[in-house]
Amino acid sequence: MTTTNRLILLDEQEVKDYLGIEHTGDDTMIGRLIDQAIAKMLGPEGIDRGINKNVPHVETFDGNVRTFIVRHYPIVAVSGIVDNQGTQSDATDDATVSAELYTINYRTGEITRTQRSVPGFWSSGYQRYVVSYTGGLSAHAEWDGSIEPVLRASVRDCVADWYENTNPRVTDDAIGTGIRTTLTEKAVPERIKAVWRSFRDQ
Length: 202
Description:
Elements (H helix, E strand, L loop, with lengths): L11 H8 L7 H16 L13 E7 L4 E3 L5 E10 L10 E2 L5 E4 L4 E6 L2 E2 L8 E8 L7 H22 L4 E4 L5 E4 L8 H8 L5
Antiparallel strand pairs: 1-8, 2-6, 3-4, 3-8, 5-6, 6-7, 9-10
């Protein structure tokens, strides 16, 4: 396995078994393809959020809304929300917002301003807020049981598709190396994108 810290528990051997590969000559390339597929899965073509629930995140939101929705959910913990100076300054700039003034939906990543126990508005106009939190898809209650296995299989299928439709060995005598390995960017099959995107609302 490569040194990438993968929460998708897929290694080169699983891909090789799936493809019926018995030699070791392409292990490094397959490992890189796995990392590329995971990167695609995490990006805008896929689930479009992080999966490691222990990674800290910082996001900035404008005011004049009832609710902020963070990108990397479920939320594990919110370490703080700071009223940050926007286009104008006021007395609350750089002040930490009291946790009594908002509620957190850890499951959906929603942070709602409350006022006397009812929904309120984050201050309007020039206010901006910096939210510091930890969270990611692996915090979901179904991560181990149903989410990770499906994502792992989809990444495996993506790598297999790329591997079977690529000739990564090219000659390049101009640089005197003879044979070298190239990993040109490949398109993600639409069927795999559909699987990834199905988890955006999980």
